[in-house]
Write a structure and sequence with these properties.
The protein is an alpha/beta fold. It has twelve helices and 18 strands. The protein folds into two domains: about 5-355, Glycosidases (TIM Barrel), CATH 3.20.20.80; about 355-430, Sandwich (Immunoglobulin-like), CATH 2.60.40. The strands form five sheets. Strands 1-2-5-8-9-10-11-12 form an eight-stranded parallel β-barrel. The chain has a four-stranded antiparallel β-sheet with strand order 13-14-15-18. A two-stranded antiparallel sheet has the order 3-4. Helix 3 packs parallel to helix 4 (about 170-180).
Length: about 425
């Protein structure tokens, strides 16, 4: 069991001045305060820009035009951009961190001019791309070269885009070949169908999978009143032995910002959900840059930070400036960051990183003060300690005596049969019970 990992996703062109050099010592030191293990640098391989078919300006980082190059706008000296990327990788490693980039196996930009075999059509409305032909051996051979190229530059892992649209057998064989040469790589799959989870772990060998159709969708539904917190227990039971292979998140480049009016309208309504996603089991956690200060995508029309256009998210700008001592974060941003840091520090402790988890909702259905549709309770335990967590997704304060079953008392060496907790509206509470 590898335990919980913390991943920090950043659309690279939005950090600081948008150059690779903006990832300096201060920025990397900052990530240590969040307990980050891996940085997912989104938008590194060169994508299409400045042409009629391109969406937005400078365009989508998921419409790759050259797999052996990086975007010139990321470099201080575009002519030396690959050297600057290698310097970035070295800085990341020297800081004790690891770096991830995207691997996009389903499509390329319409103007791609390499050796990948392509159809003359695209999936859905991705009109800036062309679908790749995986039945052609040239595609597998070329992608093997691509993955070796980036791994050879020191990249530590790949977040694999829309893998369910690619033939699984061919992708699995490709991954197996690359793993044999670079066994330390981390492989993350963007997977949406829960019925595919075990297949992509056991047959293809992915280390982490998005739990989008599980934890993310359920928490979001509980927050907007369309789903019950009971479903969190059902999801836990469904996942079973693959808990450690899940990647939990509440934001990424595809999803709406928590603080936007299209989602929660403020991070203060999301702390129970954040705590649950970070603490419930040893699943990994992913930040999206700016989330930790309540970035709200105020300049967008849909609550998402655009991946197609030049934009300057205010919260992200405040964060970068604060890291570099140029100004202070606003008080609300400071409070949000402090609360995220507390949760992240807790999630990285041995108890929450490796310990066992016991869902208590089944034995508290009728407990006074506990609403199984709006509350969740669980214990994290190991050989030396145990912690009871109560997450309250409702708008009222919850006070309840959580029952602890005899079997758990014996396994975790807990000497009490119940414990009283008080959780604020939309918040959570913790209680040591050993």
């Amino acid at each position: 069991m590898s335990g919980k990992r913390i991943i920090y996703q950043v659309l690279t062109r939005l950090w600081g001045n948008g150059r690779l050099s903006a990832w300096d010592k201060e920025s990397l030191d900052y990530l240590h305060t969040l307990g980050v293990d891996y940085i997912w640098f989104t938008g590194i391989p060169r994508h299409a820009s400045g042409k009629a078919f391109v969406k937005g300006d400078p365009g989508s980082p998921y419409a790759i035009t050259d797999w052996y190059d990086i975007n010139p706008y990321l470099a201080d000296d575009p002519a030396s951009r690959m050297e600057e990327f290698q310097a970035l990788v070295s800085r990341v490693h020297s800081a004790g961190l690891k770096c991830i980039i995207d691997f996009i196996p389903n499509h390329v930009a319409c103007d791609y001019n390499g050796r990948l075999a392509r159809y003359n059509w695209c999936d859905g409305d991705w009109t800036d791309t062309l679908k790749l032909d995986w039945s052609n051996p040239a595609t597998v051979d070329e992608f093997a070269r691509v993955l070796r190229f980036w791994a050879g530059l020191g990249v530590d892992g790949f977040r694999c885009d829309m893998v369910e649209l690619v033939p699984a057998y061919a992708l699995g064989r490709l991954m197996a070949d690359i793993k044999a040469e670079f066994p330390g790589l981390l492989w993350i799959a963007e997977v949406y169908k829960r019925d595919n989870y075990r297949r992509y772990i056991r047959e293809l060998g992915f280390d982490l999978l998005y739990d989008k159709s599980g934890v993310y969708d359920i928490l979001r539904g509980v927050m907007d009143g369309s789903r019950s917190a009971r479903e969190l227990s059902w999801n836990w039971q469904y996942l079973g032995e693959i808990q450690d292979n899940m990647l939990n998140f509440l934001e990424n480049h595809d999803e709406q910002r928590i603080a936007s009016p299209f989602f929660a309208g403020g991070v203060e309504r999301a702390w129970a959900s954040i705590a649950y996603a970070m603490l419930f089991n040893s699943a990994s956690w992913m930040f999206y840059a700016g989330e930790e200060v309540g970035e709200d995508a105020a300049g967008s029309s849909d609550g998402r930070t655009s991946i197609f256009d030049w934009c300057k998210p205010a919260g992200l700008a405040h964060l970068y400036a604060g890291i570099h001592g140029e100004n202070s974060l606003e008080s609300k941003e400071q409070d949000t960051l402090a609360r995220y840091r507390r949760l992240s520090t807790l999630s990285r402790s041995p108890l929450f990183r490796y310990g066992g988890v016991w869902d208590l909702c089944y034995c508290n259905q009728d407990t006074p003060g506990f609403d199984p549709d709006l509350n969740a309770a669980f214990v994290r335990y190991d050989g030396s300690e145990a912690m009871l967590v109560l997450c309250n997704f409702s708008s009222r304060v919850v006070s309840t005596d959580i029952r602890i079953p005899q079997e758990l008392k014996e396994i975790a060496a807990i000497d009490k049969s119940e414990a009283t907790l008080h959780a604020p509206a939309f918040g959570y509470s913790l209680l040591k019970c050993k």
